[in-house]
Fold:
Amino acid sequence: MIVENSTKKTVNPKGHFVKREYVMTLIFVTALFLLWGMALTMGDVLNKHFQNVLQVSKSDSALVKMSIFGAYAIMALPAGYYVERFGFKNGVLLGLILYALGAFLFIPASDLSSFSLFRIALFVLGCGLATLETVAHPFIVSLGSQDSSDQRLNLAHAFNGLGGVLGLLIGGYFIFGTKSPESQNLDSVKNLYTIIGCFIGMVAVAFTLLNVPASLDLRVIKGERRVKSSGIFTQRHFVWAIIAQFFNAAAQGGTWAFFINYGSEVMHFSDETVAYYFAFSMALKMLGRFIGTYLIIRYISSNRLLTICAACNILMCLMIAQSWGSVSFIALILLNFFFSIMTPTIFSLGLKNLGGHIKQGSSYIVMGVAGGAIFPPLMGLVADHNIAYAYYLPVICYAVVCMYGYNFYQVRG
Structure:
């Protein structure tokens, strides 16, 4: 028997978007989505900067992505167990501490001009991001009714898109944009990440002062009594959510990692100029999430919108690979618009009906983000010969996401 509650999008009038006592918590947790969005896109700026300063190849510079997203594969499950044991608030604090520690490790990495040490710093930072993602998704889901969970997640991820824009603008200016000698070496990187580490540390201190209602964790504990003893891996929609998130993150990691390379090699723009185009693309991603949230609330089921967006990105990738000048570059910019709703929608559909296993389920879906560690080096191998042809590879990824939205999202009970 197929449960249709994830396919019909007439909003349940009894379902609340967020309880009044959780509003401040929602605001703060939504800010976390912004913070890890900044970190991810700054990694794409670093990817090109390391090519320029440390003279690494495209395939080797893609190890930046492997360091960040590889941390998701290792840290997601421990983070999930940590949150189960110590609750949402302590999980957020752990994530922020690791985020700040990773940023501060950029100081010795810059002083030693060590690509290996940079990768260690990015791995620690990535562990912080993985922890925040593992905590934040079930955190957001628990703040209201399950019927409106996909709306809350898409809204929160809209601010993740804003973080992506800010990450590119800040990173593009400090690393590429200034004319000082520091922008031609690693001092700009060290200065930028020292500021980031201090800021994240202050956010962690502020979060300790936030009153997070204990009822949030109690709601999940109560829900655990209603979960079937057979476990979450008998739920097909959940298992396919992990698979879809793996390929979704793979496509994201690869297309973002070589955006600046494509702009400089195919369009012959400066790195700084392409970074600003990338920021505009991330702004379209943010816009897409606001539009997607509205469409899901009013007009279309989340799985159907996911299918349409994945199909559109298959078309965009095929156009990018043709090197049609401005037409292909516009398609590259539009990738993020159609990508916008994919991550939160996959999360929301995958977490349906998991009851008290929602934290554990979130950690497994976050682990799927490790796809972003594997795919960029593969694209890099192709990009070393032809940057445009590398964009044929994400077609495979978006095809998997398209299948998930078309059929495999369905909750069976």
